[in-house]
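Entry 14. Structure prediction run on the chain below.
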Amino acid sequence: MQTGIFSRSRNPVFLGMIAITAGLFLAIPSAISLLAFGLCWASLELQVRLEEAHLRAALGQPYLDYCARVPRWLRVA
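Output returned:
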């Protein structure tokens, strides 16, 4: 997909999950909510990198072109 939210982020669902855990930490600042945020970020970063390797192998140049246009996490402007 190259339209809508997928034109701004290759991983909008995962970005939403990170935003939710960041919001949890801001709403309930504690060591546990900070740990949840850190674990969420780290595990999703790992999952995204594994999926990207698979997609590069499976889709080749079209996926590389998409990666060149759309950032992994977020394009603001």
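The mean pLDDT is 93.
Filed with the rest of this week's runs.
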